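Q: Got a minute? One more chain.
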Amino acid sequence: MLTKPISVDSETDLDQIDTMEREAIASRATSKKTALTRRATLAELAKHTGLSKPTLSRALNDYPDIAETTKNRVREAAKLIGYEPSSRARQLSVGRAEAIGLITPMNSKGLRSAYQSEFMNSLAVSLAALGHDLLLHAVDEPEKEVEAYARLAKAGKVDGFVVMRTREIDPRINFLRENNIPFVTQGRFSAGADQAWLDIDAEQGFYEVTSHLIELGHKKISYLAGDPGMYSSRYRQSGIERAMKDAGLRLHSTYNGDFTAESGRLAVRSSVTKGLDFTALICANDAMAMGAISAASELGIHVPGDLSITGYDGVRLAEIFNPPITTISHSAADCGASVASMIVSLVRKEDSRDLQRLVKPTLILRGSTLPPKGLS
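A: Always. Here it is, folded:
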């Protein structure tokens, strides 16, 4: 900073002033940067508030024996002087890692699903708002999942887990139950009467979409199923069969898929090769519906004029697909947020009465369904 007048008598003097000004600006910038990045210490907070370090620590960690007025006073003082407790120190003080684990095989189709991506993004954001991190861990083989659960839990890197896409036979859940590790599942599972889960009422959703097709006049309705090993598959199939039975009809045929768009393409190509003899195809998720519509278009089959196709999940892409897909919608973002609050409640041992949630889906009618030819 310039502290005294400088005479300007020559080009040399101008250069000198320019140099001194740059040095002064750089000095001020360095000082400002230091002030911004330097973290106040607990000792400084104690001096500022006149409280002991143990009292400050307990106030900042929300211990019940500290009055709310004191907690508020400490938080305001910490914000004023720029004190932030280190995450490691906080973890030690509360005895938790403040992280939730989610393990998935690297070749998992779930990881590539648009719905699962939306769900995980919401889960991570919601956990962060609750003071927890999402630790996403990938394994190269599904058989190594339980080993990964054990390793993360033993190392104390997570406080609990979110388990996605429950299975008919699920060693992950068996391990977590046997070791009393907090977890919430995305989906119901066998012997889960006393465990935390969030699921979509897929049976009701598929009943409604099947009834919609029947009301349009479709009688030859086929189903493109997902992975039969997934526990939710039973509810999808049950909803379809119940609606067909109520209408005095039988499901025309069932194709086996794996929740990917490619399996949707293969199902339509296979049906055309054998001779397309149904007028509507119910797909177990939106990804398969998109694949089915793409294959139909390539083969000159008009959707919905020649073939009505429906999906499930209500992902954003289904709304802008051509044609927009009639689907059973449930918000992946809402589900992610709900699961986040549920697992944090379990970890904190808070009120756990509302830890089994069955979410009602919504039938969204769009441009991929019409009455069959001859009835429209």
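A: Residues 141 and 348 are 32 Å apart (CA to CA).
Q: Perfect, thanks.
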